[in-house]
Design brief:
The complex is a heterodimer of chains A (about 350) and B (about 300). Chain A has about 350 residues and is mainly alpha-helical. Chain A contains 15 helices and 4 strands. The radius of gyration of chain B is 23 Å and the shape is elongated. Classes of the chains: A mainly alpha (about 350), B alpha/beta (about 300).
């Protein structure tokens, strides 16, 4: 116990004197949060430039044009067809809306008139613009035909509080930090092996398990520390509050850290030098990060990737943290999240014990 | 008797690193194991320290079998590895304190610092220490548990002469306190100065053992005459000089071992006077034979080759 405590304290002293380690553990997730915070804060002011060509100057045509101009996130410029289309090709407009000349004539006859939209399918913005236009045209249609509104949709979020982009991201950033902290957690061990510190420790009566245990506990404490920093920042800077149980949160963080520390140890169990261990860790770090549902919702991924996402431990850590921290809709139950992480931990730890090279 | 080794063998693949060696170390000895790089010194020490397992042979340390009581032995021995193996971001005092915590019984950090003369540097972070200070710290780490035997594996390799001398004083201090020290080195003058008993090891075998004085006396009754000439004088001529028992050459200079130095030198001077083409005698000096000469005689090689 005396030796365990001394090793733990020595690890923390080394950590706080290592500027690079400090930066990657604390500054990096914070910088990440601010970058994303900036991106998401911009979203409220987004507006799209739209070209409008009105070929019907009847009251019905003008009313339709007025309706489109009234959409808050559209900046509408009226013009004539050909020059407007040319301007769109030059990138001035995201879309061009054409109100047909037969609008006023067709209404009394009960025939359909087509409002035509020119758009660029390669532009992501069209995915936002088209549904909005669809809805506006629908509403105008209803007013013109004067049919009564029989069915309407009102929105009611099942989440108790407003769910913004940062709510999705902050648990993700915490999950990512735990991933990094865990995977890179074995690198000091490789350095100790390379510089024969492990051999030197082996020449003392110290047990190997005490060495490993002190290193793992050290990482877990760091992860808890990091969690508190991220949550405080989320609360004070991004107004994202931790709504769930602290006990559950810390349990999730501890289990997650153990899992990734174990995966990290497995990855470098045979590496001879820190230089050779580094690329191995990086190689598993990126798929672990991007093939999990942490930064992109699982729904937008192609279907062939979904089974991969479904086994990645980070998906479960992300899901669990999101549920606990911001009461997000569960992908799985928290118990399942913990069980999957536990299985990963047990499997990799057992394998590591078998193949880890001490010297 | 604190260490007993009998017929120790360790092979790595095809290479016999240790090839059936036997020796004993007594309480209070500064025991030296001498030999060139790759002779099997480190392998032997690491088997005694419990860091490697021998293929065959009997090893007992402090009366215990190393393969059975490794942890008990580790409490009572101090170890200094060839690589310093330190935690670079701790300071001297913290590192010693950490190592002290691994042992049931240990001396205070301050006592350990006094032993190696690092008291003034105790707040310096390890990575900022000089090579000599790191070696001294490494020795201090090996003494922190007040060991009955201290194993020092080439403690002075790579040090400048001043740092080497400082470390010699540390080892002499241990000797004066009656501690047993097991020292490996490839510096002959180091072994000659520090050790009261030593073995010379080459290609995994012991080729000589005894006290430094015994080794020299048994191999050389004569003194060494060392000199250089522009053109080397043929060995057959040198051997015919009065008093010469052996001829050797080393780094371009010639070595004559003689039991009649005065006659040998006058013959040599006469020879160079008559044969001008060999050129002037330079760097001529006469000295007592050393362990270096013993090694050269026994192996036909210089220890640093």
């Amino acid at each position: 116990m005396k030796a365990f405590r001394a090793l733990l304290i020595a690890s923390f002293k080394q950590f706080f004197r290592d500027k690079t380690a400090l930066f990657f553990t604390f500054a990096f997730p914070i910088i990440f949060m601010f970058i994303f915070g900036l991106v998401y804060s911009g979203e409220g002011n987004i507006s799209y430039d739209i070209g409008l060509v009105n070929q019907d100057i009847s009251p019905a045509g003008l009313a339709t044009a007025q309706g489109i101009k009234g959409i808050p996130i559209f900046k509408v410029t009226e013009g004539v067809l050909e020059p407007t289309l040319a301007e769109m090709r030059d990138g001035k407009y995201k879309a061009v809306v054409v109100i047909p000349s037969d609008l006023a004539g067709n209404i009394p006859k009960g025939e359909v008139s087509y409002v035509k939209v020119y758009y660029d399918p390669s532009d992501m913005a069209s995915q936002t613009i088209l549904p909005i236009l669809q809805q506006v045209v629908q509403e105008i249609n209803q007013q013109l035909s004067q049919s009564p509104l029989l069915l309407a949709l009102t929105e009611q979020s099942i989440s108790a509080h407003k769910f913004g982009g940062m709510d999705f991201l902050i648990p993700g950033i915490l999950a990512m930090s735990i991933l990094f902290l865990g995977l890179f957690g074995a690198l000091p061990m490789v350095e100790w092996r390379e510089k024969q510190v492990l051999k030197r420790l082996g020449a003392t009566p110290l047990n190997r398990s005490t060495v490993v245990f002190s290193q793992v506990v050290y990482r877990v404490i760091l992860a808890l520390f990091q969690t508190v920093v991220i949550i405080l920042l989320a609360h004070f800077v991004f107004k994202v509050n931790m709504v769930g149980s602290w006990f559950l949160l810390f349990t999730m963080v501890v289990v997650g850290t153990l899992t990734f520390v174990s995966i990290g140890y497995l990855a470098v169990s045979r590496a001879k030098t820190t230089e050779s261990a580094m690329p191995v860790v990086q190689l598993i770090q990126f798929p672990m990060l991007f093939l999990s549902g942490v930064f992109f919702p699982v729904e937008i991924m192609p279907s062939f990737m979904k089974p991969i996402v479904a086994v990645m431990p980070l998906s479960y850590l992300g899901d669990g943290l999101r549920q606990i921290m911001v009461a997000a809709t569960p992908q799985n139950s928290i118990v399942l999240d913990l069980v999957v992480l536990g299985v990963w931990f047990t499997a990799t730890a057992l394998l590591t014990i078998r193949i880890f090279k001490w010297e | 008797m604190v260490i007993e080794v009998e017929n120790l063998v360790k092979t790595y693949g095809q290479i016999k690193a240790v090839d059936g060696i036997s020796f004993r170390v007594n309480q209070g000895d500064v025991f030296g194991m001498l030999g060139p790089n790759g002779a099997g010194k480190t392998t032997t020490v690491e088997i005694l320290e419990g860091l490697r397992i021998a293929d065959s042979g009997k090893t007992s340390v402090l009366g215990m079998d190393i393969t059975k009581s490794a942890n008990k032995i580790k409490q009572k021995i101090g170890i200094q590895l060839q690589a310093p193996a330190l935690l670079p971001l701790l300071n001297v005092e913290e590192l010693l304190g950490t190592f002290a915590s691994f042992y049931k019984n240990h001396i205070s950090v301050s006592q350990a610092l006094d032993l190696v003369g690092l008291q003034e540097s105790k707040k310096i972070v390890v990575k900022n220490l000089s090579g000599g200070q790191q070696q001294r710290l490494s020795v201090a780490m090996s003494l922190i548990n007040n060991p009955e035997i201290a194993f020092l594996d080439e403690p002075t390799t790579g040090l400048d002469p001043q740092a080497r001398r400082a470390l010699w004083l540390v080892i002499e201090g241990m000797r004066d306190k009656g501690k047993t020290v097991f020292l490996t080195t490839h510096y002959m003058e180091e072994a000659e100065r520090l050790c009261n008993r030593l073995v010379i090891i080459d290609h995994g075998k012991i080729i000589a053992q005894g006290s430094p004085a015994e080794l020299i006396r048994n191999n050389f009754a004569e003194k060494a005459i060392e000199f250089e000439t522009k053109i080397p004088i043929a060995e057959s001529i040198l051997k015919s000089f009065k008093g010469v028992t052996r001829v050797a050459s080393e780094d371009g200079s010639t070595l004559l071992y003689s039991n009649d130095v005065t006659s040998t030198i006058s013959t040599l001077l006469e020879f160079t006077d008559k044969n001008k083409e060999t050129g002037q005698l330079t760097n001529l000096h006469i000295r007592e034979a050393t362990l270096e000469d013993v090694f050269l005689k026994l192996t036909g090689r210089n220890i640093r080759e």
